[in-house]
Amino acid sequence: MYLDALARKSSGMMWMFNYILRWFESLILRIVKTGQIPRHVALIMDGNRRYANTRNLAKGEGHSRGLDKLIEMVNLCTVLGITEVTVYAFSIENFQRTEEEVNEFMKLVKQKFRRLLDEREKLHEAGLCIRVIGNLSLLPKDLCKLIAETIVITKDNNNVILNIALPYTSRDEVTSAIKDIGRGVKRAEILPEDVDEDLVSDCLYFNRSPNPDLLIRTSGETRLSDFLMWQIADTYIYFTDVMWPEFSIWNFLGAIFNYQRCYPELQKNKKTKPIVRNNRVSTFLDKLQRERDIAIYNMYVSDLPDQSAVQS
User: Fold this and answer.
1) What is the pTM of this model?
2) What is the pLDDT of residue 10?
3) Which of the chain's termini has less CB crowding within 10 Å, N or C?
4) Range list of β-strands (E), 123-273
């Protein structure tokens, strides 16, 4: 009887603690929202493997918990009014890891995209637009089909945009843009004198997105690993020692507070100028975007058999 009473008392105290914690979180969120909120946040979700190693878990479990954490953070971004999130899900350099780990990761990604498609109504209710940015030719065909379907069915959602860099490096992104520009010049769709910084920006994978206001990297690494190197000249960069699966609301709000503290200086250094395009360049860019959209749609409607070495 005594133990039952103690258990009830403990349960009641835990309920009260959780209530106070939720109230405190809500208060802090309201305070944060009185300051400048970044429109676009980029995340280098580092530390999944180390997290798994320190807990004697399989690497795949570390990646799985990392993807669950991503969903949690996207929800938090929505609450804060952040309208675009870009995450570094898989670098092209990661293909150099063991075949077992790469296959396990691709299998996990397929499972997550299937789950997203199974819950498409929730995606529409949340207004979540998902874009996958990177060199899709390096991915298994069945995964490309899932990715393409997700992109197509969410393209008209406009509450929050989630860009998933998979597989991606800045060098590959810039190389791809240069190749597209070279083809345009070769076909006389644009002229050599049309080629400038703005044209390169407009031909990047991220051409539909504003540059990130805030970039966060977890796990104590203080490098950028070839992520959005073209786009982050004026971005506030925040490093934290916390491993990504352990990244909490408080860690995220700490990054926001630091961004807000430095915001006036960031605005002072930011250079903005209107982009003026001639009709020739505008026509070329419109055609390039249509070609990219058609390529995604063709992946979506394709009935090609799975030729992937990665088994579901």
Assistant:
1) 0.86
2) 53
3) N
4) 128-133, 160-165, 214-217, 236-239
